[in-house]
Design brief:
With 213 residues, this protein is of the alpha/beta class. It contains 8 helices and 5 strands.
């Protein structure tokens, strides 16, 4: 079986890491978790988005770039499949929401250069939900750094994700996308929901792994 890269995406607090860990266990995949709370600009960003957005986005981009380089050389290139709790394309979603003026085109040029040769996802799992569900789950996990998160920012981010994913499916028809509405699912606290999600994903994972590279 060939190695594949699965990415789990969706707005903050939706359950990306939790589902990625379950997929790793269920399908014997190497797990890649993004570096989030080591970002020294994150707390400042939530307090003043305009002032700290460029520093925040550049830190994330460089760290994700290095992670994906390492995953490619250490696992994918050696036949080991990987599930990641993010897709590198998320950088453009956040950047287009937070960066202004000359910062956005500069950032996108750097993004294009860095991601040109990175491994691309063979399967994207997209988690979405309403603003009420997302904010409730953010509050439930009660991370100090997220307590000052702006509701309007999150509402816009959810809309940005939905718009981006619609365009992604249109322009990347060869990359399968499995979408779950998490207003109706709680795979973290309800085992029956987790089973339902894994049963939906399993056939596509097995199909992709069985294909010859």
């Amino acid at each position: 079986m060939k190695s594949i890269l699965i990415t789990v995406e969706g707005p903050i607090g939706i359950g990306k890491t939790s589902l990625s860990r379950e997929l790793s266990r269920a399908f014997q995949l190497e797990l890649l978790e993004e570096i989030v709370y080591e970002n020294p600009f994150l707390g400042k960003f939530y307090e003043n988005i305009a002032e700290w957005s460029f520093q925040l986005e550049m830190f994330f981009l460089c760290n994700r770039y290095k992670q994906l380089q390492d995953i490619h050389s250490q696992y994918l290139n050696k036949g080991t499949s990987v599930v990641a709790d993010y897709n590198i394309f998320k950088n453009t979603i956040f950047a287009k929401r937070t960066l202004t003026g000359d910062n956005l085109p500069k950032y996108l040029k750097i993004y294009d250069i860095l991601t040109e040769d990175l491994p691309q996802a063979d399967l994207v799992i997209y988690l979405t939900a309403s603003i009420d569900t997302v904010m409730k789950r953010i509050a439930l996990r009660d991370r100090e750094i997220e307590r000052s998160m702006d509701v309007t920012y999150m509402e816009n981010l959810i809309a940005d994700y939905n718009e981006f994913m619609e365009a992604f499916e249109k322009h990347h028809p060869a990359t399968p996308v499995i979408k779950f509405n998490c207003d109706d699912l709680d795979f973290v606290h309800r085992p029956e929901d987790l089973r339902k999600v894994l049963e939906t994903i399993a056939p596509r994972v097995l199909e992709l792994q069985a294909k010859q590279g």
